[in-house]
């Protein structure tokens, strides 16, 4: 099945007013091979402005590789990827850099530079731009720190001195350093305890409302998935099997979807959905 369209003009996860559907990421006929290992084969995906799209799939199905290709860190074998209308595979370096400045990344591994303080980690993307004096960069980085619920007292701490939840927040603050329109989050709640994950979910909700962000998130965490996603793209069989709101996915007959969304853990998480969509008591 190809990518399912979003419901007409709605941004359900935010409860926001109807928005016009505008695809700001368009992945078409994507093929990605490492040697003879085919990771993606004819993958299609669109992400609409203002939505939070989650990507799920078994371990090794290519979720991180997909994000890396979208942001130009990994080259597709074939196919096209357009972000904000620009073809990331053919863009000259200067225009690619300008495009990169429109998104932020919080990646699965290597969250922070261990030798840099919190504030220097957050300031790094701005310093790399070389366009602002350092006092403005520090001010901006401090604002980002507060935006993610930390305070100036945390600014000079080193990554080793932070809790897991704080590391995620600082990584998110760095992803927001350039005030992006679009943010990629790869397993943002991995390693957090349930309360830490809940706090992170609340933070993402607030930031979406305040900043009007479009978010592409990879997560294994069902509670996070259910709490935040407008649509969920399911990676299976080297493709996006479907990209739709969770209630629509529940109707698709596929082993991964059955196992992932209809197992015992999923049934508990799905009770958080509005009543018409929550699973009934039966198997
Ligand atoms: N640079 C690389 N060279 C060779 N194979 C790679 C490379 N990067 C990724 N792969 C392979 O591509 C496949 C997809 O990897 P990817 O990291 O995208 O999986 P994932 O869906 O993010 O998994 P997880 O849920 O465990 O994070 C894996 O089999 C991985 O070993
Ligand atoms: Mg991954």
UniProtKB/TrEMBL annotation:
Keywords: ATP-binding, Cell inner membrane, Cell membrane, Membrane, Nucleotide-binding, Transport. The keyword Iron does not apply. InterPro entries: AAA+_ATPase, ABC_transporter-like_ATP-bd, P-loop_NTPase. One of its GO terms (molecular function) is ATP binding. This is ABC transporter ATP-binding protein. PROSITE patterns: ABC_TRANSPORTER_2. Residues 25-262 form the ABC transporter domain. Coiled coil: none annotated.
